[in-house]
Amino acid sequence: MKFAHMADIHLGATSDPKLKELEMNTFRKAFEICIEEDVDFILISGDLFHVNIPDLSIVKEVVKIMKKVIENKRKIYVVYGSHDYSPNAVSIIDILEEAGIIVRIGRGKIEKGLFRPEVIVDERSNAIITGISARKLSLEREVFKILDREYLSSFKGYKIFMFHTAIDELKRKGEYYEGISSTDLPSGFDYYAGGHIHRRIEYGRIFYPGPLFTGWGVDLENTAKEKEEVFI
Amino acid sequence: MTIVGSIVEGNSKYLIMRERKGADLELGELVVIDDEKRKYICMVYNIEYGVLLEQGRLYTSAGTIIEKTNPKLEFPNDDLRIFRKIYLKPLIEIHNGKYRSPISIPKLFSNVRRVEKEDLSFIKEPDTKVFLGKIRSGGRILDFDYYMNGEEMISHHTIIAAQTGRGKSNLVKVMLWEIMNHGKFGILLLDIHNEYFGIGNNKGLKDHPNADRYLLYYSKTPPPGHKKLKVSLTTIDPEDLFGIIELTEAQREAISVYRRQYKEEWIKELMCKDLSNIAQSTLRSLRRKIGNLFRIRISDSGEPYCEDEIFNFEKIGEKTIFDIANALENGKIVIIDGSSIPDETGLVIMSAIMREVFRRYENYKDQGILKDKLQIGVVLEEAPRILGELYDKNIFGRIAREGRKFKIGLIAVTQMASVIPDEILANIGTKIIMGNEMKKERLKLIENSPQDLSDYDYIIAGLEKGESIVSSIFTKFPVPIYTPLFDDIAKSEKEKSEIVVF
Question: How many domains does chain A have?
Answer without folding.
Answer: 1
